[in-house]
Amino acid sequence: MNFYMNTVDLIRKKRNGESLSEDEMRFLIHGYVHGSIPEYQMSAFLMAVYFRGMSDEETLTFTRLMLDSGKRIDLTDIPGRKVDKHSTGGVGDKVSLILAPLVASCKVPVPMISGRGLGHTGGTLDKLESIPGFRTTLTLEEYRNIIQRIGVVMMGQTSEIAPADKKMYALRDVTATVECIPLIAGSIMSKKLAEGIDALVLDIKTGRGAFMETYEKAIDLGTTLVKIGNGFGVRTIGFVTDMNEPLGIAVGNWLEVVESVHCLQGKRGRSDHSADLMEVTYTLSGAMVYLGGKANSIEEGIQVCRESIDSGRAYSKFLELVEAQGGDVESIENLSSYPLSTNIVEVKSPKGGFIQEIDSFELGQVSILLGAGRTKLDDPIDMKAGIVLRKKVGDSVMQGEPLAVLYTDKDSVVTEARHRVAQAYTITAVPSSRTSRIISMIDMEGVHPFN
């Protein structure tokens, strides 16, 4: 490695749209991980990449260097095909909380390394940590032991797994450089390839509440991720899913846990408005069961997953997971024991009609205002805070009927939050219909419709 490289020259080179060599990329990543390149220079580099992008070769190199900055976990001695799932992030996306124990209950091992909230989207780790006592910070030995014992584990990155990404992930969140395909691809795949998995299912979200707002960008990202995964020997398929309205009914950490528990319990207490959440969950979990060798097709995998929910096996596996990672099982079995926000406020409809649209990006932003997310690296999160939707796209509504309910301990934000949520709903006189949240599937053969 040429240790006489100049960081400013490399930032300038990328700013001008030129490609960096492997040695140049290594110099930047190694320097950032080990402290010789400060955050302000890495921030400038990330912004240059955001505007100038990377070539396919640069993206592969970037991913490999991020992966090689830490350890790769070896799970070959654990029986079965290990399969994970990753979502590019959306508002109300709590699929992992349902899917991981569900797939594990179908005898497919699920080792899952997740992240925290990015921008307007929530993070799986934050949601899990809203469960009292739940530990997402595990040693690699604990990670191996839990997956071996119960077939599922959900943790955050350790300093040993893609440490370059761990540092860069947090920096991207506060420098407005999240929505960049090479950076997203390198971040996702460096973690996933380090997990010890044999296959991967991707949920690439598109629409107003997603980082890839247009379908074309979602396809570009999905195609890139599928190529990288398969190129590293991990069988990878992706689904493009709609994020033009929040997924399910809850936005906010503990509120999303509650909805997930209701979904795992099947018909017992589950809202009809969680149907879109379960559509996405069943599709992704069915694909994982198929890739895990426990079904002969994705469709058969979906049916296997439905049976596991109906039988109660998936919910029992979730309780096993909570207990295995130090969580308070009683808080799950008795959801009403959790403390409530000091302000629980209904947002009422200004007129009657039909819900045509819900601005999911705006609801994600309001959830941060309420305390459910971060605007700075060290912001505390109020696990109780968030939004529960009472009306979704396709519903009819009368004037004065609740559209949503806000939960917050912040007295000062209630008026603004109520106004913004009401404005996020588009209500028309013309009825609208609900559509499938699954748009298409991506594999090595290309992009296909998926019903």
Give a description of the structure.
By secondary structure, this protein is an alpha+beta fold. The protein has helices at residues 7-15, 22-33, 39-52, 56-68, 95-105, 124-129, 140-150, 163-173, 181-194, 215-231, 253-264, 275-291, 298-311, 313-324, 329-333, 360-370, 414-424; strands at residues 83-87, 110-114, 152-156, 199-206, 235-242, 250-251, 343-348, 353-358, 386-389, 396-397, 402-408, 425-428, 438-443, 446-449. The strands form four sheets. A five-stranded mixed beta sheet has the order 1-4-5-13-14, sandwiched between helices. It is globular, with a radius of gyration of 21 Å.
Which terms would index this structure?
alpha+beta; Aldehyde Oxidoreductase, domain 3; Transferase, Pyrimidine Nucleoside Phosphorylase, Chain A, domain 3; four-stranded antiparallel β-sheet; globular; 451 residues; 16% strand; Pyrimidine Nucleoside Phosphorylase, Chain A, domain 2
How would you sum up this structure in a few lines?
44% of the residues lie in helices and 16% in strands. With 451 residues, the chain is α+β, with helices and mostly antiparallel strands.
